[in-house]
User: Fold these one by one.
Assistant:
Number 1:
Amino acid sequence: MNSVTEFQQFAPRHPKDPAVVLLSGGLDSATVLAMVQQLGYTPYALSFRYGQRHSSELDAASKIATQFGAVRHEIIDLDLSRFGGSALTDMGLELPTSKTNTPHQNIPITYVPARNTIMLSCALGWMEALSATDIFFGANAVDFSGYPDCRPEYVQSFEHLANLATRVGVEEHTVRVHAPIITMSKSQIIQTGTRLGVDFSQTVSCYQANSLGQACGICESCRLRQQGFADAKLADPTIYQS
Amino acid sequence: MNSVTEFQQFAPRHPKDPAVVLLSGGLDSATVLAMVQQLGYTPYALSFRYGQRHSSELDAASKIATQFGAVRHEIIDLDLSRFGGSALTDMGLELPTSKTNTPHQNIPITYVPARNTIMLSCALGWMEALSATDIFFGANAVDFSGYPDCRPEYVQSFEHLANLATRVGVEEHTVRVHAPIITMSKSQIIQTGTRLGVDFSQTVSCYQANSLGQACGICESCRLRQQGFADAKLADPTIYQS
């Protein structure tokens, strides 16, 4: 495995500092967790059962958390489907399977209202209770450019809020919200994860994976992932529904 | 009932606009909900079962929601006690019953890490799913000056985040996070609520109320409330444990 010197800007202030890592069980957050471990943090992994269609990603998250040294993995139950407003949580809305989102399209129907803000807020609560100062967030602005809460200015704003919202933020102004893959392309993420030892066959990106975690191959998320492996010139290890 | 002309800065852009109101069942948020109704919004009330000791406040919240015209009242289950770090959710920590917090003390042990950020984030998700633009938040900076997430600069920062995090925020920059009682004293809140028809005997502020909603009379929150009625020169209608 190569070193991760290119990620030293995300290094812990002290060896083994705790860090809360948002872990969906998908390709992006698995790569971030591998990076966090490699950088020398003590990872605490946080996942959500929020009413998503594709809960097999949580089984994937558990395996990945164990593999990359998370000392604890919490799965929070938080039913966002009662609010509606997204094809990911509302079974009455149809998932898009046409071509992937491009930068100047509108926000896609798979966007879940305020989901990333809610998840980051819970990560902030755990971070503070752990007396930690670091959160890692696998948002990506390139592939999902239509999602408002995957942009660098959003992450910066959340970090600013975090330093006003918490004891450690107010007293020391040291809370950091890291989004280390936010400006990477999918193929760059795949190349990075591969270098860090991520087994992508264990990750679930599909919006409508079955209970075994097998992917549909046609949804927007599957198509982005397929293109990523093609662009990275790596074999796609994803297990598809037959 | 007097008019609420003094609150016109919080008025809806259009009559009957929907607004999400965080409603704990305590004195402060009951007053805010009464104000929201009086201003002409269509209120959507949001409460949380977050592992707090005093869940009888949720029964109070339901009654108050109905009384002040909430068209829907959602109670979200979100177990923050698993993270620990607060005397409100951690049964291993003792609640303070000595004198109340003053501006220059440290953050009190009853502070729940990131609780307000998590609650506001959920309100933001519901707001966006409702195609609304307004959130009401009963934070108060005067009595709870030791809580970082009850200060005006915190609320401003959350509003800034909300306009980066959501579809409506990015497209129209119109999300408003109102904290109409944030700079009021407890006695001013009580006077306002009384004018607006709030029956404070139905509200529960006590950190360790019993299952009937009867207050202990000795915790920090009870003491602040007692002092508020005394300062307002109004009879305290709170029902105490005998």
Number 2:
Amino acid sequence: MSYLTEKLLEEKVFKDPVHGYVHVSDKLIWDLIATKEFQRLRRIHQLGTTSLTFHGAEHSRFNHSLGVYEIVRQIIDVTFANEPQLEPEERMVALCAALLHDLGHGPFSHAFEKVFGTDHEEYTQAIIIGNTEVSEVLSKVGEDFPLKVASIIKKNYPNQTLVKLISSQIDADRMDYLLRDAYYTGVSYGKFDLERILRVLRPSPDGNGVIVKYSGMHAVEDYIMSRYQMYQQVYFHPVSRSGEVLLWKILERAKKLYCAGYEFQVSPSQVLPFFVNEVSLKDYIVLDDIVLMYYFSIWQEEADPILSDLCGRFLNRRLLRYLNYDPKEDAELYAELKGLLEKADIDPSYYLVVDSSSDLPYDYYLPGVGSGKEPIKLLMGNGELRELSTESPVVEAIGRERRTDIKLYYPLDFIESGRVEPVVAERMISLIHAHSLKEK
Amino acid sequence: MSYLTEKLLEEKVFKDPVHGYVHVSDKLIWDLIATKEFQRLRRIHQLGTTSLTFHGAEHSRFNHSLGVYEIVRQIIDVTFANEPQLEPEERMVALCAALLHDLGHGPFSHAFEKVFGTDHEEYTQAIIIGNTEVSEVLSKVGEDFPLKVASIIKKNYPNQTLVKLISSQIDADRMDYLLRDAYYTGVSYGKFDLERILRVLRPSPDGNGVIVKYSGMHAVEDYIMSRYQMYQQVYFHPVSRSGEVLLWKILERAKKLYCAGYEFQVSPSQVLPFFVNEVSLKDYIVLDDIVLMYYFSIWQEEADPILSDLCGRFLNRRLLRYLNYDPKEDAELYAELKGLLEKADIDPSYYLVVDSSSDLPYDYYLPGVGSGKEPIKLLMGNGELRELSTESPVVEAIGRERRTDIKLYYPLDFIESGRVEPVVAERMISLIHAHSLKEK
Amino acid sequence: MSYLTEKLLEEKVFKDPVHGYVHVSDKLIWDLIATKEFQRLRRIHQLGTTSLTFHGAEHSRFNHSLGVYEIVRQIIDVTFANEPQLEPEERMVALCAALLHDLGHGPFSHAFEKVFGTDHEEYTQAIIIGNTEVSEVLSKVGEDFPLKVASIIKKNYPNQTLVKLISSQIDADRMDYLLRDAYYTGVSYGKFDLERILRVLRPSPDGNGVIVKYSGMHAVEDYIMSRYQMYQQVYFHPVSRSGEVLLWKILERAKKLYCAGYEFQVSPSQVLPFFVNEVSLKDYIVLDDIVLMYYFSIWQEEADPILSDLCGRFLNRRLLRYLNYDPKEDAELYAELKGLLEKADIDPSYYLVVDSSSDLPYDYYLPGVGSGKEPIKLLMGNGELRELSTESPVVEAIGRERRTDIKLYYPLDFIESGRVEPVVAERMISLIHAHSLKEK
Amino acid sequence: MSYLTEKLLEEKVFKDPVHGYVHVSDKLIWDLIATKEFQRLRRIHQLGTTSLTFHGAEHSRFNHSLGVYEIVRQIIDVTFANEPQLEPEERMVALCAALLHDLGHGPFSHAFEKVFGTDHEEYTQAIIIGNTEVSEVLSKVGEDFPLKVASIIKKNYPNQTLVKLISSQIDADRMDYLLRDAYYTGVSYGKFDLERILRVLRPSPDGNGVIVKYSGMHAVEDYIMSRYQMYQQVYFHPVSRSGEVLLWKILERAKKLYCAGYEFQVSPSQVLPFFVNEVSLKDYIVLDDIVLMYYFSIWQEEADPILSDLCGRFLNRRLLRYLNYDPKEDAELYAELKGLLEKADIDPSYYLVVDSSSDLPYDYYLPGVGSGKEPIKLLMGNGELRELSTESPVVEAIGRERRTDIKLYYPLDFIESGRVEPVVAERMISLIHAHSLKEK
């Protein structure tokens, strides 16, 4: 028996709060889970700063990755059991890609990528094909097997149905994270009937994705609504974003200091390659939440008051406050606050920050195909395919909704702390107060 | 201490799958639960024929009524604890009305009211103020106390906030039945964050209802979405409606037979008052699911073949099949099927039935006030009130959606059974087949 | 393809609150569900009088029967997938028996069987092999197929492993009812990890039952604990048993009246065969909760004051009260109460009733084999089999526990109502009070 | 209004997966949550190495601490609402102690305390009264308020009922962690009816603890069973303990190297005080999971092969394997394996490790009082108090059960890897194999 089809002596299971159990019977999958690159995902939180708002959400990408694998396994082995069978290799390419799809995430991806310009999808591919334990395991199937797995992530694997299973408007990735994030935060919004959706998925007849039987339309509507609610209530939560703002500014500041020749008390050796933009694959893999958090903790003692303050804020949850911000209407407010902060010797580039939810990697639903995410298609009784939002006014309304949420973050504690001259502080407080009255 | 404020020696609880526990500490509430009119609700199913589709949904109105009481109790005693306090009498009027609001439901209300023209809300009031154990208990508070409780149901109690707690777009009745029906059917759609909604409700400043703090908008959106899903997926389910159609036709047939002088083998004494439209309050209270179901079971043996067949169908779940029906486009199909059935000696008034979901007492959301159901108002940060759908495109889309679902029910088993001449049967099958091809 | 192995065009599912979905792909199973004998189970409550205590528990045996079928289906098709395969006929015999195992239950079985001496297991077999729709469907497989299915219920089917799947200390019947009854009552006690237990079950090497891999011992311990808790807290609840006592006494009284020549206002025709012990299969099948409840409701108007009172009590939940009763120590108390009731013209054979929990068809765990229920065996690492309680002190303690709970039921409301002479009433109250003080 | 009784303008809530919401209305509690010592608990995992077995269990002590606070808040403000009222100060002492009870936990407490001899309960007190933000906040109530809060932890606060709420056989700490750990691992074992237990708790009449109304006995039995199951299935799981063994050996090795003058490539400055046993409060607070994990990650690159290997094992989950071990019977096996490892140049003090579950800080139930944990007392109907296990055979059996689980951990991968001479490896494998055959 080849390694591709080798089974474990006995099926192994992982107890999982979302799916009950994650089932592994393929030796290859078992070996991939044991690699150090996959184990590293235990040290990357799934939801960056969300636990600052929802304290329950402390789960890792390891946790989520097993879930995505389990969903794809069920789709391939159960849902598609009566479809023309996949080749063993195709099946395994999909399972591996599902398991490994988040391998390239670094710590706090959103803020990190903003400052250092890295791209987690590219790193996922690099880890799959590079000089890694993962690649070594995959190569035991065949020399070009890692490339095949990577091409799912790159979205150019010939069987596009398998690509879409892992990345489309209704993919295993989203289905798992919605359920999982809802479970860990404890909110009720993210729940939908996964079992029913799995029953109504079908490979698209054109071999180019996954479609949904019309009888499952309402289950998919419910999934889109869950998505909408999770984004509105959890992912875009302004308090978590306040944590993101701090992260972004910490990294920006540290990089700037380094480039300006600042001498750190302890050299942040694992981060240096990123400061100078000379990052090897090994450098990348070494980074995880532990390393960054460790630096944040020692940077609290750094001489630079901005870096030290920002790190203390992040670790001890002394967040910036926020107000709703309209770039057009509120330009004057911004300018005046900026001036006042400067007068108080508080650097506005770090302490007066505009953050827009549209920067976040989430969307409720995009009916158009230009989005890079395949829209959801319904298989009608007569065999016709129709895009979901043409049949569902609710989904249409959600897809139409693009109200970007923009916040302006500011350091209320500084203003109130006596660090700012009373007359300046009073003016700032009064500006902020007047602005909040204007709002609905 | 007066009866109005008398407490039980120790708080009593009912274990409840939806709310954990239902708490009773008022002697009056305890005594009302023990009345025979309230105990009768154990013999009225909450969801009529839904258990023909969702077998889990076998719960009674007793079950639901305790739940509505519990929600109102929490709103009054917890949510509104910091509001200007209600008079003890106002509080108790609301709790009693919550507990008793479904008292006037008869068996299988929807079909029953259609045939006999009764109105459960009127009967609820009649039981509250009439010669009943319930009324006797209420009168111990004061002679006019039953009238006050009834006026909540009638919607003309002076404190309109309390009226709206029990009947409005976001009332305790709906909140309980959505959660409860979701629990018993086992579907995930009906879930929303009740605890959060209870936290953001406030009495309207104009004393005319309940409003929602803006911070709770998404929780209320989620509740509206749950409603939409439950109606689409559960309440309007065409298989349950097929059961409703049988009920309606059974009652219609029995009444018609009686009025035409037909002699029943066993006189259906408890139903006779309804056949002749001379119904006393006592006659009404005697009726419950047990009595009707008993008659259905013995009517299986009646000589009239239509009555006997319909009853057998209902009890043994041999339902009529259905097709989508558009009164304008499909008039011809209807006419031809009608003709063919008549030719086969199958009475189309009982076996070819058009049923529209808009006849059902459900709506997703009605933003307008003319609807008799107060729309939901948000309390904005600046004190302004805004109707929910002006702020939420999703709710707006749901409120706009009015696609009535119309089905045509027909007896496929008769057609296929040899009871119908082959050539006629073939024609019918081919008509039905062609129609289904036309559909999406 | 033979009827035995015929599949539906598309798998059908029933939404189930306990198992998510019940899956049916065999035509035979689908046809059995559609029979009128199986549909009749919708009209038999699973838990007789339990809903008088736990209002949520209004579910039927239809509901539970689908669940037992689903568990057996999973064991056969999934758990045992790697075992030497069952013959298609063996598989189907087991699935049919699982689905049909409760077919012979009558209304309120416990009290009914006590009064009329019927046996639901015998009736289950009779319906399976008799002149019924069920038998007709089964016979389409082969003439002797109904007998084979019945022999599972009779426990003499050659493959004893399949017998034990449906009746043993860890059978699909108990596993489903514990989970289901816990769900509907809303208590947390009945939950255990069904998925894990299903993973560790194996057919016994001696072909004589089901055994459990040692690694699953704690999961099975948890199941036994759930059982213990459910019996203690739900099934033996003295308030539900108070309802049972009323049922028992109603049936006893009605039978006695009839045998004594009493003339009922309306002849209770469907119950007469039981009064005279001349019951045909058809008579039996006609009976369900509806019929009995209907008679109870009209018997409220009967001239016999005992029958009328008991029926009113049952329907309106005016239950007898209870005290702990020790047949040895409390004989005197019993005698004196009896005398006092007689003095007050209240017939103690109906109103002073001793009820013992050991009469109920439940036990926590019986390690011995003489019990008719196979004990649970663990498969040790070295291949040895050991009885569960020899390995688990907790199970041993539960299996040892045989504290029978005996209650004495009495009509407190009569005593307090003025119906009883003050001096007699006072004496009774003081006896009862003194007894309760004596207790811990 | 004094700080002790100062309320927030509006009650704040934390969404919590276990309790729904955690409610905070006291300004003091809000301020304590914002301190850096409390925020530090976000960086200490609740369950050390359990997530190596149950990947879902990645939650922190921050999470759990809020839960313990919420349970105590409910007991004091709801359960005891009708008891003689607590003084505001007593109430607040209990709430603060509940919130802060885990403040002194260091990273991976179990292994850490074993190696360095620290005691988290002492550090909890030290943080409460020392030079910390927590102490500063508490002192705003009064100079001696920190001492009062600390005396709850020290168990000598005058009101012993409040002490027992936080530390006894049925305290808020255990109730929260059982429910929470069950939720995050996804197992069903830890669930019990918290709401019911909270209803039946009462302050002991002797002012010396909490007692349970007899009517709640079965709910408490269920809680003890949950505890038993969680310990057996989760806390004592040999795979998690394998992680603990690695941690213990890493810390032991690092300390030994340092004391022997080994030069680390990067000085582990935050751990040095522990190596030399000169630990200030500030040193202690700086330590958290982040710091230790960071060192483990860089120690992978250390020159010492043992330290480097052990750290790599821990981070990449290459665990030692285990076999059941009986110190008496298996002494010879141990000796021979030790000799063989030494022959293969594998230091047995790090790679052949005996671990006993009795070292873990868990017990199922201890009926005796000498245990330092007050046993559970039932309040009988006649006012008498009885120890739980005298009434419940199940609890008695659980309390009696003291089967310590001892494992011997060994490096299977080394043995199989070619690092060990074939003949030595073969002998080891054969010893291990023979041992496993001997077992049941």
